[in-house]
UniProtKB/TrEMBL annotation, chain A:
Name recorded for this polypeptide: Nitrite/sulfite reductase
Residue intervals passing through the bilayer: none
Domain Nitrite/sulphite reductase 4Fe-4S: 119-274, 409-548
Superkingdom of the source species: Bacteria
Organism: Marinobacter salinisoli
UniProt entry keywords in alphabetical sequence: 4Fe-4S, Heme, Iron, Iron-sulfur, Metal-binding, Oxidoreductase
Taxonomic placement: Bacteria, Pseudomonadati, Pseudomonadota, Gammaproteobacteria, Pseudomonadales
Boundaries of every Nitrite/Sulfite reductase ferredoxin-like domain copy: 53-111, 347-397
Pfam family, one: NIR_SIR_ferr
Span of the signal peptide: none
TrEMBL record, chain B:
InterPro entries, sorted: UCP030820 (IPR008318)
Organism superkingdom: Bacteria
Pfam families assigned: DUF934
Annotated source species: Marinobacter salinisoli
Protein name, entry field: DUF934 domain-containing protein
Length: 550, 167
């Protein structure tokens, strides 16, 4: 994992001092609210329904155990003792005091953490696959490139006041996309060209929110060393020509659409021609240096523990289910990737208490080289667990609430905080997730249904990614009452697509029944190998409509 | 006379006046002192203005610095207007003027220029700042100097941190 050197430490300390000064000036009335707003947002500080909210960056979702322990302590000392893992791989505190934020930032800086650019109209935290570096289907480890982008985007002087927020995601697997790159402003797919050189396929102009779009490809192959100059060209074109007259039309996706992807690409190429060989061009040396932080942990040489696991599975059905669903294959023999689901029915998806954070930190130390990853599905990954210790780990996590063996099933819901916390919400989303989890409480049935992404957002900002859920639920407001609109057929993977709206919305009480009817159509019409999405794509939306609105 | 801040944080009297764009049907009224006129009007009246040490131009945030082309260094001052401090186009304009067009003279930020943006302006190549009058000019030096270094190459340094680390 990346470790700060004296430069990073100095910049982090200077940032804390700067924000302390800004907060002092805001509290002294020297900064108007509208002047302080973008400054505090660039430090992750929202003012929310009940209190401020602080969004802390977890670069590309990776943390060390001491960092998570510090988050636990901060949430206890400055907040109500819990935090929230978000779909952007960050961590949010829901109730800090404004006056305390500079101190919180200072505490974070001590463990090489920060809240820089987690909000506001600037380049946000770059996200990636939570399995980066540990599965063998990736072309190259995406994390060094994420770190390179992190450094380049941090306090970039030209891009701190963009028309709108800007998100970059990187994916490296040919088989799958766990980073949802095609619904980001820039999605980078790591590829090799015919000559075998490493580079990126560049998607620009995806995003959710009010006008959801899947990002078109604007460059099939960008050589590795050109990464930053090309990003700089894209951002410069966006900064200069993106719409600023209307907040809803200010995202880069609108510009790409207006110019057409080819027209936009031409503008970027023209800009890039001027800066391609500028000092921002990466060097082999710089890449190697960053890569040296992402070398493998000290794995021991092991055989796969197949016999042992077979025996343990045979003796314990619940362990067997967990192993089948929450544990993934690892590139190293004898190791596995463990997904801790933070989806116990009755707790809001992604919410963790201070005690749980400490438990996760302890588990990471004990079982996974002290390293933790946050996923965009609001779960946690221990990436390097010895297979011969899986049973022991599983026994430890079940009482902690992380052992629900429902990864990627219908009840592994992505859910935004909605009306319970968020000032922008049209409707609550947490109780909807819970009602659906209660309705589908039979694991065998869930397994039979296979992978289904159910995503819930409390308003069209789409923090819960509802557009790209196989089943999406969107909170809507009708004359002051909360209703829910359903969309079907979304996907955030390589076959990314935006879900189609089913029809009129439903009252909250009706939601579990509606979902059940949708599921019944799938069960009735699927062929043996089909996932929900396959069946939907084959039969279209009408059969679902007919059943739900019958 | 109003004061401006220089990139090293020092403060000096400002002897330039910004001439607003004339209304439709009116003509440009250039005063009898150092004046910054709209860049497109300077180009339109090039014969008249070129080479004058008392005439500079200002660009608005939607305008194209490229339009000044290789004439930039005939201008003693180019100002870039920030109609709103959240309008970040001026940063890109500044870098293009400095790095692409090779502008070497005074590059000034005007308009909604606040303290917390000065550091970004400096890195993008501005070397004077007409702070919004209600802001405390005495705090400018501090705000210009919060950071002793940046990660990126920009106008102030052509060695991004990754190159310095290598050295
Ligand atoms: C609680 C306070 C929150 C506020 C005020 C808030 C605000 C917003 C707003 C205004 C947007 C719309 C952006 C657009 O137009 O595209 C947005 C989008 C988004 N937010 Fe949040 N959000 C909050 C919490 C969260 C949380 C908890 C998560 C993660 C669980 C999250 C993740 C996202 C994501 C992924 C998007 C999608 C944007 C896109 O790709 O287009 N937000 N949020
Ligand atoms: S989707 Fe809407 S309700 Fe949910 S967190 Fe985002 S802004 Fe709030």
């Amino acid at each position: 994992m990346y470790v700060y050197d004296e430069h990073d430490r100095q910049i982090a300390a200077e940032r804390v001092a700067q924000f302390r000064d800004q907060t002092d000036r805001a509290l002294a009335g020297e900064l108007a609210e509208e002047e302080f707003l973008p400054l505090r947002l660039q430090n992750g500080l929202y003012v929310q329904r009940l209190a401020p909210m602080l969004r802390i960056a977890v670069p590309y979702g990776m943390m060390r155990s001491n960092q998570l322990r510090r988050l636990a302590r901060i949430s206890r000392d400055y907040d109500k003792g819990y935090a929230h893992f978000t779909t952007r791989q960050n961590v949010q505190l829901n109730w800090p005091n404004l006056e305390d934020v500079p101190d919180i930032l200072a505490e974070l800086a001590e463990v090489e953490m920060h809240a820089n650019q987690t909000s506001g109209n600037c380049i946000r935290n770059t996200t990636t696959d939570q399995f980066a570096g540990v599965q063998d289907d990736e072309i190259a480890d995406p994390r060094p490139y994420c770190e390179i982008i992190r450094q380049w985007s941090t306090f970039h002087p030209e891009f701190a006041f963009l028309p709108r927020k800007f998100k970059v995601a990187v994916n490296a697997s040919e088989k799958t996309d766990r980073a949802a790159i095609q619904v980001h402003d820039i999605g980078l797919q790591i590829v090799r060209n015919e000559a075998g050189d490493l580079g990126f396929r560049v998607h620009v102009g995806g995003g959710l929110g009010r006008t959801p779009m899947v990002a078109p490809v604007i460059r099939e192959f960008l050589p590795e060393l050109d990464l930053l100059t090309y990003l700089e060209a894209v951002l410069r074109v966006y900064n200069r020509y993106g719409r600023r007259d209307n907040k809803f039309k200010a995202r880069i996706k609108i510009l790409v659409k207006a110019l057409t992807p080819a027209g936009f690409a031409d503008k970027v190429e023209a800009e890039w021609a001027h800066i391609k060989d500028s000092p921002t061009k990466l060097t082999r040396d710089a890449i190697d240096r960053i890569k040296s932080y992402f070398t493998e942990p000290s794995y021991v040489s092991l055989e796969n523990a197949s016999d042992l696991l077979a025996k343990q599975r045979f003796e314990n059905r619940a362990f067997d289910q967990w192993l089948s669903h929450n544990v993934d294959t690892h590139k190293k023999p004898g190791y596995s990737i463990v997904n801790l689901t933070i989806k116990e029915t009755g707790t809001p998806p992604g919410d963790v208490t201070d005690r749980q954070m400490e438990q996760i930190a302890d588990l990471a130390d004990e079982y996974s080289f002290g390293e933790i990853r946050v996923t965009h599905q609001q779960n946690v990954v221990l990436a390097d667990v010895r297979q011969d210790r899986l049973f022991e780990l599983w026994q430890a996590i079940v009482p902690m609430g992380f052992g629900t063996a429902n990864l990627n099933t219908l009840t592994d819901v992505i859910c935004c905080p909605g009306g319970d916390y968020c000032a922008l919400a049209n409707a609550k989303s947490i109780p909807v997730a819970e009602a659906i989890q209660r309705r589908f409480d039979d694991l065998d049935y869930l397994y039979d249904l296979g992978n289904i992404d159910l995503n819930i957002s409390g308003c069209m900002n789409a923090c819960g990614h509802h557009h790209v859920g196989n089943i999406g639920v969107l909170g809507v407001d009708k004359k002051g009452e909360e209703f829910y609109q359903i969309s079907l057929g979304g996907s955030s993977h390589h076959d990314a697509s935006i879900g189609k709206i089913l029809g009129p919305s439903f009252a909250r009480e009706a939601m579990p029944d509606v979902i059940a009817k949708i599921i019944d159509v799938y069960v009735g019409r699927r062929t043996e190998e089909e996932t929900f999405l396959d069946t939907y794509r084959r039969i279209g939306i009408d059969p679902f409509k007919e059943s739900v609105y019958a | 006379m109003p004061e401006i801040v220089l990139h090293n944080g020092s403060i000096k009297q400002d002897d330039w006046v910004v001439v607003p764009r004339p209304e439709e049907g009116e003509s440009l009224n250039v005063p009898d002192q150092k004046a910054l006129i709209p860049a497109d009007l300077w180009l339109a009246g090039y014969e008249r203005y070129a080479g004058r040490a008392d005439i500079g131009v200002w660009l608005d945030s939607h305008q194209e610095p490229e339009s000044l082309g290789d004439k930039v260094n005939e201008l003693p001052v180019i100002a870039v207007n920030f109609p709103k401090f959240t309008d970040g186009r001026g940063y890109s304009i500044a870098r293009i003027l400095r790095e692409r067009l090779g502008f070497e003279n005074e590059l000034r930020a005007i308009g909604d220029v606040l303290l917390d943006q000065l550091q970004f302006m400096k890195r993008c190549g501005f070397n004077s700042y007409a702070l919004r009058p209600d802001k405390d000019i005495q705090k400018a030096a501090k705000c210009l100097g919060f950071f002793t270094q940046g990660y990126q190459a920009a106008t102030d340094t052509d060695t991004p941190l990754f190159r310095r680390r290598a050295g």
